[in-house]
Amino acid sequence: MGTRKVILVTDGDRIACQVLEQMARRIGGRCISTSAGNPTPLTGAKIVKRIKQAKHDPVLVMFDDCGARGVGQGELSLKYVARHPEIEILGVIAVASHSRMTRWARVDVAMDRWGRKARFGVDKNGFPLRAKAGQKEPRIYGDTVGVLNEIEEIPLIVGIGDIGKMDQHDHIEMGSPVTMKAIRLILAKWK
To answer: Are the C-beta atoms of residues 4 and 54 closer than 8 Å to each other?
Structure first.
């Protein structure tokens, strides 16, 4: 099938999995549900194998470090997948964690819980952040995002709050509008 087109997502809990499965159906893509977990249960090599078996592009893939300090299993797997020669990364949805931790990633655009652009980033609940000293670009703070700064040639990184949550603003019964908007931004850049 050639190079596979993939959207990476730095969240892998049960709710994120349910939302991303629904999003994949809505866009005519596939979701690698077995990549969900706290932490990510699969190695990068196993995830690539599952991506290659998916019937359609784009493929949504989850990565989660479950709060691990430093580089955890989710980030190791993400880095492997992102650098694989048979995988084309369309973009990344960088998901904020509990607090403004020391690990962060630059994002191209951040969206708050209402789907509006947030100049300096958002927190887990989707509230806009204030700039830290010297900060000019939007950032997302979390346990599974730090490795994104090491990966070159990601076309678009969209930062959002916690998938499917954000105090009900991204609830699956509402169609998870913030997550869908992030996916559509990435797909618009691809097409």
So the answer is: yes
Number of H helices, E strands in the chain: 4, 8
For 173, the token pair is 């019964």
Tokens of 106: 């630059």
8 A C-beta contact, residue 90 and residue 5: yes
Q: Hey, which residues does 110 pair with through a beta bridge?
A: 159
**Burial label, 2 (beta-carbon count in 10 A; 0-12, 13-18, 19+):** exposed
Long-range pairs for 169-172: beta carbons < 8 A, 24 or more residues apart: 169/113, 169/114, 169/126, 170/19, 170/113, 170/126, 172/15, 172/18, 172/19, 172/22
pLDDT digits (tens, 9 = 90+) for 75-95: 999 999 999 999 999 999 999
The pTM for the full model equals: 0.95
